[in-house]
Description:
42% of the residues lie in helices and 3% in strands. It is mainly α. Helix 3 runs parallel beside helix 4 and helix 3 packs antiparallel against helix 6.
Amino acid sequence: MAEFGKEDLSGSTFDWTDLSGSVFDAASMSDTTFRATDFYRVRMRGVELFDVDISGEIKGLVINGVDVTDYVQQELVRRDPLLGRLGPDDREGFLVAWDELERLWEGTVSRARALDPPLLDESVEDEWSFIQTLRHLMFASSSWVNRAVLGEAQPFHPLALPWDTSPPMPHLGLTVDARPSLDEVLVHRRERQADVRRVLEGLTAEQLASEVTPEGEGWPPPRPFAVKECLHIVLNEEYWHRQYAERDLAVLERRDE
């Protein structure tokens, strides 16, 4: 177990580093960036938290003795009621949510097409480019619908893009560093959207109450998953990545002026 006392570690990068069980006492975390980092059971006492921007999956967030988790979720749903419809329990609910997501994404793609094409490969504040975002959604639907629900052994197109801190998965045959055009990505993206719609239109109550276990190497791993959970993940991926895309397109539009 390493101990650091009064060392200057500013500017350091901790990549796939296990800091669980660590104690930060009188440490400076100013201007720090955390990406895809777990904060399970974290306790902060006597901290100074100013100008902090947090986004991600948040449960059980207590600030000065007040659990603000429900308040944050309720406020998000108030701002966008679609968010409150992303956890349906029946076929009709899934189809209503998917219809709206597809409609919204068509508008987002149209917005992107109005930009100078090289901008669609540009990152905003180290986030994915617009084209990378679409490639990731190909990966998400291939994972949770084609592989998990439909049981396809190798559903991944080479242009599909896993999350940026994923472990190496050479067996999937992905070309992570590819630079495809928007039109090239949309061909395969729409194929995956059609697969999702086909599954949702054929849903039965028995299927929604069942579990599936993907076989062999791949993502998700070969363990049981509720069908409903798999489909909820796809809805949430589609919703949140569109939010991020819209946010970044606003920045790219200013660059294109």
